[in-house]
Amino acid sequence: MRIAVIHGPNLRLLGKREPEVYGTATLADIDADLQKIGETLGTEIESFQSNSEGEILDYIEEASTRVDGFLVNPGGLTHTSVSFRDGLVGVELPFVEIHLSNTTARERFRRHSFLAPVAVGVVLGFGSESYLLGLRGLVTHIANR
Q1: Per-residue model confidence as pLDDT tens digits over 82-133
Q2: Quick one: how far is CA 37 from the chain centroid?
Q3: What total of structural domains would you count in the chain?
Q4: What is d(CA 70, CA 67) in angstroms, rounded to the nearest whole number?
Q5: pTM above 0.85, yes or no
Q6: Quick one: which of 1, 5, 2 has its CA closest to 96?
Q7: Catalytic amino acids?
Q8: What does the DSSP assignment read for 59-123?
Q9: What 3-state DSSP class applies to 42?
Q10: Fewer CB within 10 Å: N-end or C-end of the chain?
């Protein structure tokens, strides 16, 4: 099994950007943890980060030919991007939406997700552990299809 992890805009700044909200783990830390968990699950992990919506959409289409699903932290695109939603739906692969913070407990505009209604699951509020929980859930979902 192979899973693509998509880190959306500003996630390259993890560890520095608002650590009281997003924690101190860096993107490299999260990717390393995902690789370790992936090995225990017998799952290959590939990771992609971009601040550009267009690059993310191109990656989804390109990666869809070699992966079984997506683990997605869309960042600010969660609340604004119908294109991100449509790109994921269009490739017809399961995905889990994850967030480091509990977006439902934050500012009102962060409470809406264009992705959640079409995701197989959503994990939020557990810091970097959200990625690991999301990966376990996605792998289980795919294995049980």
Answers
A1: 899 999 999 999 999 999 877 765 567 666 788 999 999 999 999 999 999 9
A2: 15
A3: 1
A4: 8
A5: yes
A6: 5
A7: 22, 99
A8: HHHHHTTT-SEEEEE-GGGGGT-HHHHHHHHHTT--EEEEESS-GGGS-GGGG--SSGGGSSEEE
A9: coil
A10: C
